[in-house]
Automatic annotation (TrEMBL):
Bilayer-crossing regions: none
InterPro entries registered for this protein in UniProt: Elm1-like
Gene: LOC100778122
A Pfam family reported for this protein in Swiss-Prot or TrEMBL: Mito_fiss_Elm1
Source organism, top-level taxon: Eukaryota
Record-given protein name: Mitochondrial fission protein ELM1
Region (Disordered): 1-20
Length: 385
């Protein structure tokens, strides 16, 4: 972790006033963040997104054995360090030993695999750290200073959700209690996309996208999950629908995720790969995901990915979702909420992509960051950015 060089005590005759480091005591300022990752990019994206929204993008993220730089995103440096495995004892000792000189730690963890580590840090270093757990740990929420989770995680507690769960399984797969005062509910997943990052990325991708015929339709294809099952039928439906809207598009750019089955991508490539309006990214070279978010005029996203949908909906641009009818359980609630608020529309193939529509963009990450600021203030701490 970067050491903070304390300034000299202020001179009584100084016109610049008293530096805040002496005014309030250094220990009241949170200057550093530790992210506990579970090895999955989607989970770590949520944690890093929150840290950046808090203004700590130039700080450090700790891993156990060594610190390694996160790869830059399309030429934009991450400014963070990544952790391979978190060691509770090392982090707790670090928090205690550096508290007087460098202030408390902000610990951000995401995913079920991080619950034990994050809760242990809270238990052993509660006076020296503020622990945020992203995604619902289901029970004993007081093990953390704050829990940030989507509203649809509480779908199992609704009357409709209760009907779908046998009583003898409810304690295993549902939250046992409704959200309390330190639970922050979001519409979707946290991420690193906001207007500032979009502007920055748009500039870095200017040469590739500035001359692309418009409107530009970006298609993000995920893959089937336990609660959103689909196969070649959806791929054929998507291909047919895209062919139907091509006349209203200047260009179409298609990306697959690591979860996209080969049989799905093969159909898309076969049906659309030779069309001059269509570009299919093969996964080689720089990841174009951020460039697509910045330069697209509209999106089509498969229903399986809460993360990809959340990112697209944070742009304020039209977002069409394909395959929501294949989803069940709490994902049904997620899609229903977005449609009711006018944030997304189903993709049918009858759309005129040149006709734009708008909605209040999702600001889950910024909203969650504001709640963290408020909770820190309640403890007499504040972020130093």
């Amino acid at each position: 972790m970067r050491r903070i060089q304390l300034p000299e005590p202020p001179s009584p005759t100084s016109r610049s006033g008293t530096p805040d480091i002496f005014e309030s005591g250094v220990h009241t300022f949170v200057r550093r963040a530790i992210v506990i990752g579970n090895g999955f990019a989607a989970s770590e994206n949520q944690s890093v997104g929150l840290v950046r929204a808090l203004g700590l993008s130039d700080k450090h993220v700790l891993y156990e054995k060594k610190l390694v730089p996160l790869p830059s995103e399309n030429g934009v440096g991450a400014g963070l360090l990544a952790v391979l495995e978190a060691d509770v004892k090392e982090i707790v000792s670090f928090a205690r030993e550096t508290y007087e000189k460098e202030g408390p730690l902000l610990v951000v963890a995401c995913g079920r695999d991080t619950i034990s580590t994050a809760s242990s840090i809270k238990r052993l270093a509660s006076e020296n750290a503020f622990v945020v757990q992203i995604q619902n740990p289901r029970l004993h929420l007081n093990r953390f200073d704050m829990v940030i989770t989507p509203k649809h995680d509480y779908y199992p507690l609704t009357p409709e959700g209760q009907k779908q769960v046998p009583w003898f399984l409810r304690s295993w797969i549902t939250p046992r209690d409704p959200p309390d005062c330190h639970v922050v509910l979001t519409m979707g997943a946290l991420h690193q996309i906001d207007f500032s990052s979009i502007r920055s990325v748009a500039a870095s991708w200017h040469d590739e996208f500035a001359h692309v015929p418009r409107p530009l339709l970006v298609v993000n294809i995920g893959g089937p999950t336990r609660n959103c099952r689909y196969g070649v039928d959806l791929a054929k439906q998507l291909a047919a629908s895209l062919l139907s809207v091509l006349a209203s598009c200047g260009s179409v750019r298609i990306s697959f995720s690591e979860r996209t089955p080969q049989k799905v991508s093969n159909i898309i490539v076969k049906e659309l790969g030779s069309n001059p309006k269509v570009y299919i990214w093969d996964g080689q070279g720089h990841n174009r995901h951020m460039g697509h978010l910045a330069w697209a005029d509209a999106f089509v996203v498969t229903a399986d990915s809460v993360s990809m949908i959340s990112e697209a909906c944070s742009t304020g641009k039209p977002v069409y979702v394909l395959g929501a009818e294949h989803c069940k359980w709490k994902f049904t609630e997620f899609h229903k909420s977005l449609r009711e608020q006018g944030v997304v529309r189903p993709f049918t193939g009858s759309e005129d992509i040149s006709e734009s529509w708008s909605y209040p963009p999702l600001t889950d990450t910024a909203d969650a960051a504001k709640k963290v600021h408020e909770a820190l203030a309640a403890r007499g701490w504040k972020l130093k950015v």
